[in-house]
Amino acid sequence: MGLWSRGWSGGEDGAMKQPQIAQPPPGSSSFGGQLGRGLRKRCPNCGGGNLFQGFFRLKPNCPACGYVFEREDGYWTGAMIVNIAACEAWFFFLFVGVLLATAPDIEWGPVLLVALVTNGILPVVFYPHSKTIWMALDLHFNPQRGLTG
Ligand SMILES: [Zn+2]
Questions:
Q1: Torsion sign over Cα 138, 141, 142, 143
Q2: pLDDT at site 93
Q3: Ligand 1 mean position to 3 CA, how many Å?
């Protein structure tokens, strides 16, 4: 079911009704606040927790404010990009950090082993965070899309 079919409904007189917009709570609706909520696996709109049904499965709505998480098909591609970017950033800082700390006698074996293991584990561990971070980015840049119901 798409965004518009869920958000808009025809009235009994045939006129289109405006969708309800989830309002961010007063106070911490800054970009940093939204991003912090995403990093902590919390609702980017209200900061409520308990958003996941399992480790990987997100609930369809926020239990606290009703903010709709699932959008159109392909919505979570952005979360995949967040996850890949986090893993690449981790690898970059590991690589540069080891390079700067140990040059010119760099032990490539341990670096390669740590990089392989962490780049295998990090995308899995970071998966829920990547979804909530992506929702925070989406809420910040597309605030009108926080439809309820
Ligand atoms: Zn919420």
A1: positive
A2: 92
A3: 18
